[in-house]
């Protein structure tokens, strides 16, 4: 999908360049979702009639579509209300199962739905280590290895950062965790459908996903739980955070939103078909935008890794510019100055601060999410 514009009457809306915050629902996704709002409205847990059977079938189709994109058994996919819930289930569920005093390792540039649960766990008596990152937003692998100890119950490192687009070396992180027999979780929300995720080659134990970053609906996500991938795999347990029926293998109770799940599955099916070509096209657009900005403006600073980054991400700081005035002046394009999930807090981007940007640079920053 190219840069997105929308018109209401005679008012032309801004060009949409904020695809890390959310994406519009693809028409083919919406078409799949529609019947489950009215005609096929059954509850998939209703096992005694055809309405429930059809709903359950739709859920299983979606599970298989998601599983094929990330190359995992569909039974490993636990649907949630979004990635925030999936991250909370992974972090709090595993640590609470391991018990007070167990150790969690995360990075300084995780999404707030990792950082905030980690802070709550620390207040409750758990031990939390927040690893610093380098100037590009990547962790030091040797430091990770040195930080793991016998009490370490989980390592959680983001696959692709939601602000600066930097990707971590997930394969090497998994190798370290496996060597030390520690479960590994990754927030892969921004990576899904944008870059290759192959859980046969990188068989991490836990991974969080969301539909609305790849042209699926808002309000649905998933936690991938791979408990048995290879021989001598790492044992772990997850304490449910929502109880009331024991749905989804006991991990997450509640009536499943069939329409949203069907849309999630279709979005993943489309991503599997189109991802390689789309990544090439979008990266070219991103590089052209960056080159054009450099040709026209002085004082630009690229935030994030120049190579190890999402194809549609461009995050820049502008030297000598007032951040508030910068955002106010942008009427024709829709962009963000940081994470949409942190916009309730007026503080400068903690991600940019973590990679060494000064106060002015964090204030005068723009995140372009090209789709």
TrEMBL record:
Return the Pfam families for the record. Aminotran_5
Write out the entry's keywords from A to Z.
Iron, Iron-sulfur, Metal-binding, Pyridoxal phosphate, Transferase
Organism of origin: hydrothermal vent metagenome
Looking at the record, the residues that make up the Aminotransferase class V domain are 15-366
Q: Which GO terms describe its molecular function?
A: cysteine desulfurase activity; iron-sulfur cluster binding; metal ion binding
Question: In its keyword annotation, does this UniProt entry include Transmembrane?
Answer: no
What EC numbers are recorded for this enzyme? 2.8.1.7
Q: What is this protein called?
A: Cysteine desulfurase
Q: Which family would the database say this protein is a member of?
A: Belongs to the class-V pyridoxal-phosphate-dependent aminotransferase family. NifS/IscS subfamily.
Q: Which InterPro entries match?
A: Aminotrans_V_dom, Cysteine_dSase, PyrdxlP-dep_Trfase, PyrdxlP-dep_Trfase_major, PyrdxlP-dep_Trfase_small
Q: State whether keyword Ribonucleoprotein applies.
A: no
Cofactor(s) demanded: pyridoxal 5'-phosphate
């Amino acid at each position: 999908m190219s840069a997105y514009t929308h018109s209401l009457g005679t008012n032309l809306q801004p060009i949409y360049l904020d695809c890390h915050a959310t994406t519009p629902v693809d028409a083919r996704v919406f078409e799949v979702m529609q019947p489950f709002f009215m005609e096929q409205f059954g509850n998939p847990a209703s096992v005694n009639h055809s309405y429930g059977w059809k709903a359950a079938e739709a859920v299983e189709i979606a599970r298989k579509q998601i599983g094929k994109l990330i190359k995992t058994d569909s039974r490993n996919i636990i649907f949630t209300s979004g990635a925030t819930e999936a991250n909370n289930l992974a972090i709090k569920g595993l640590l609470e199962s391991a018990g007070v005093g167990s150790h969690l390792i995360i990075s300084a540039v995780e999404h707030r739905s990792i950082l905030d649960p980690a802070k709550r766990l620390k207040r409750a008596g758990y031990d939390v280590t927040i690893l610093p990152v380098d100037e590009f937003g990547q962790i030091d692998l040797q430091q990770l290895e040195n930080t793991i100890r016998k009490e370490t119950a989980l390592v959680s490192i983001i696959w692709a950062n939601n602000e600066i687009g930097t990707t971590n070396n997930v394969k090497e992180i998994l190798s370290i965790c496996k060597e030390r027999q520690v479960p590994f979780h990754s927030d892969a929300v921004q990576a899904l459908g944008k870059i290759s995720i192959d859980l046969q080659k990188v068989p991490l134990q836990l991974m969080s996903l969301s539909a609305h970053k790849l042209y699926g609906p808002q309000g649905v996500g998933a936690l991938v739980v791979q408990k048995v991938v290879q021989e001598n795999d790492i044992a772990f347990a997850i304490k449910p955070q929502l109880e009331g029926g024991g749905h989804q293998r006991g991990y997450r109770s509640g009536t499943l939103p069939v329409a949203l799940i069907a849309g999630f599955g279709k979005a993943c099916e489309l991503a599997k078909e189109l991802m390689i070509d789309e990544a090439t096209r979008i990266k070219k657009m991103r590089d052209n935008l960056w080159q054009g900005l450099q040709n026209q403006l002085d004082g630009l600073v690229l935030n994030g890794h120049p190579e190890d980054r999402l194809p549609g991400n461009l995050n820049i700081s502008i030297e000598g510019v007032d951040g508030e005035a910068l955002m106010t002046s942008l009427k024709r394009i829709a962009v963000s100055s940081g994470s949409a999930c942190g916009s309730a807090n007026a503080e400068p981007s903690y991600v940019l601060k973590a990679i060494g940007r000064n106060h002015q640079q964090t204030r005068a920053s723009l995140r372009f999410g090209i789709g």
